[in-house]
Amino acid sequence: MIHSLAINKKKQLLTDLSVEDLVAGDYEWFWVDFDQPIDEEIEKLHHPFNFHPLSIEDCLHNLQRPKIDYFETYTFFVTHCLNPKTVKKDELNIFLGKNFIVTFHHHASVEVHAVKEMLLKEETAAWTQYTVLYQLLDHLVDNYFPIVYQIEDSLAEIDENPTNKTMEALLDELFSTRHQLLSLRHTVVPMKDLLHQMINTEKLAALLMKREYYSDIYDHLLKISELIESNRELTTDIRDSYLSYNSHHSNRIMQILTVITTIFMPLSFLAGLYGMNFLNMPELHWKYGYFLLLFVMVSIGVGMFILFKRKGWFK
C-alpha cells in the first residue's frame, strides 16, 4: 500500500495523491510511504522515481546492514527498527531528495505511523522532509530503550532467581538473553556509525543546520551501546558465577562421597579379610569373634567420622 502526503506552495497539506502527480507536480515537498508494497507498487521505485537499481535492490533484499549511500539526486538510508515484543529487527529504507522523502518497509512500522500522526496534527508549515527524517530516526532510536531496559530486568531476575529455577533453566534463559543482546548490538552499532557519518558529512548541507538534533540521537545511541556492552559483561559474570557455583557444588558432593568411601575402606578390608574361606583362621572359631569384629568395625567407622568432622570435611 502506498500512502502520500504533500505540502503545496501555499503550505497546505494534501493527502493520498498519486506518485505520478507528486513527481510531476510543483510541491514544496512531499512524502511517499511504501507500506508493505506489492510488486506493482514496487515498480514505481523504477518509474516515475527513477531510483538507482542498487538502492531498489537493497530495499528488496531485507535486513541489509544500516548504512548511508549518496547518489546524484538523493541520499539513501538503510535503518533498522526493533519489535519491542519479539526483539526482531525490521528494515526501514529512506530516500531523501531535494523536495521529497520516500520510506519503504516490508512490515508495519509503528515509527512511520507515529510520525505521520504528528505531521497531521502539528503545524505543517514548520515541517520539511528533513524534519520527517529526524523524527523517523528519533522514534527508531527511542524505541530501542524499552528493549534494553526489558533485557536488564530479565538479567536481574535471572541473577536473583526468585522462583528457584534449576541451573539448566537459568543458563538457557541467560544464553537466550545474551543472544538478544548480540542481535541488538548488530543493529545499534551500525546505526551509531550511520549517525556519526551524518553529523560529520559535508554532503548533507541541509542536515548540518540541524546538527545538534542528530547529535542528540547519536548520544542516545552511544548510551544504548554502553548499556548493551555492560549487560553483555553482566551475562558473562552471571554465567561464570553459575558455573563456578555448579563446579563448587560438584566438588563438595565428590568430597563427601570420598570421605564416606574412605570410612568404608577399612571396614571393607576387614569384611573381606574374614570373608575368606581358609580353614586355619583361629578368629573364625572364637565364641565372641563376630561381635568383637563388629565392635572394631564400628569403632573404626565412628572414629574416622569424628576425625573428619573435626577437620571440617563435612561442612
From TrEMBL:
Coiled-coil annotated residue ranges, if any: none
UniProt membrane topology term: Multi-pass membrane protein
KW RNA-binding (keyword) present: no
Record field: transmembrane: 256-276, 288-308
Keywords attached to this entry: Cell membrane, Ion transport, Magnesium, Membrane, Transmembrane, Transmembrane helix, Transport
CDD domains in the record: TmCorA-like_u2
Catalytic activity, as annotated: Mg(2+)(in) = Mg(2+)(out)
Record's GO cellular component terms: plasma membrane
A Gene Ontology molecular function term of the record: cobalt ion binding
Subcellular compartments: Cell membrane; Membrane
A Pfam family that the UniProt record links to this protein: CorA
Primary location class: membrane
Keyword Cell membrane: yes
Gene3D superfamilies: CorA soluble domain-like, Magnesium transport protein CorA, transmembrane region
Protein's job: Mediates influx of magnesium ions. Alternates between open and closed states. Activated by low cytoplasmic Mg(2+) levels. Inactive when cytoplasmic Mg(2+) levels are high.
Family named by the database record: Belongs to the CorA metal ion transporter (MIT) (TC 1.A.35) family.
NCBIfam families cross-referenced by the UniProt entry: corA
Protein name, as recorded: Magnesium transport protein CorA
Species: Niallia circulans
Lineage: Bacteria, Bacillati, Bacillota, Bacilli, Bacillales
Gene: corA
